[in-house]
Amino acid sequence: MMTAMLLTMMMMFSGCLGQNGEASDDNSEGGELIPTAQGSTTTTIVNGNYLPMVQATQMGDTEADISWAWENETTTTTTTSANGSTTNTTEITSSFYNGTLVGMNVTLYHAAIDPEGTVMVMGWDMNLDGTIDIPVSTNSGFTTANIPLNQWHDIPTTERKMTTVAFLASDVAGDRGVTLLDVYSTTPGGPWSEDRTPSIPLYAFSGKDAQGSPGTGTADNLIMLTMDQGSDINWAAISVKLSIDGAAPVTCDNPGVSGTAVCSLVEFGNTDDQVWSVGDGVTVVENGQELCSGSCSIDVTVTDTREGKTIDTTNGVVAE
Predict the structure, then answer these.
(1) Which of the residues 60, 82, 176, 245 has an alpha carbon 20 to 30 A from that of 98?
(2) How far apart are CA 282 and CA 268, in angstroms?
(3) Which structural domains are found in the chain, ordered by start?
(4) Which residues share a beta bridge with 41?
């Protein structure tokens, strides 16, 4: 009898049995700590210094615990009146499942201690680059974090996803305690669109001959370029390049910039803001150098420098 009682107590302390003597079950109601908490329970000494001890766990992975981050979808309709003016009407779709899924919000728990009692710098490293992305100031507590969709991995043969984050704690000596935490999420039911890569709005530009004929001067108007479709984009993020009669491309100075480029952009339309909008355009003008005399064919490339991507190429615009 004594042997059986000791065996039962040992199994309870080891977690094999619940405290009621029965095998423990997962709770699918949400709000439970996932029982696979990860961390260190042993002290480590490096050069006489105790490393911080850290532990981390996730607060549930059911639909009651996970929230999803949505990016509202917008639709812009351009209406042109009889006098040629344009009006843009934007409709935003913002209901729960009618957006683009961009990430999951999860609740994470941490605990950390420096055995020597020194102050620690602590936080979550969400992309495993060894740098704290979400700092924390208390030795234990909960943090709600957004994890972008492109950091999650589909678990084969299931409707679940997982990823891994890290909790870091550094003491005054600069020594660090680290624990990795596997994080899980359910996948929401549809319909919804899943976009794993950042998207750039679709742009369209049109070009035509500018007023005046290019000659042997160095300040001739060449062509006019107008945005016909797309979202507003700040001039600081725009680069316009010309290739004239197949020659190597040259970059023009943006409106308001007094630089050394061989061509410059003179804005027309709404010039009171700092963005290029639908209906606005630029006249491409020579700037101290003869680029075209008589007639020439110009290819134009417009680049979003912040995204590092070409948003439009307009070829064969004739200046004459």
Answers:
(1) 60
(2) 6
(3) 33-199 (no CATH), 204-319 (2.60.40)
(4) none
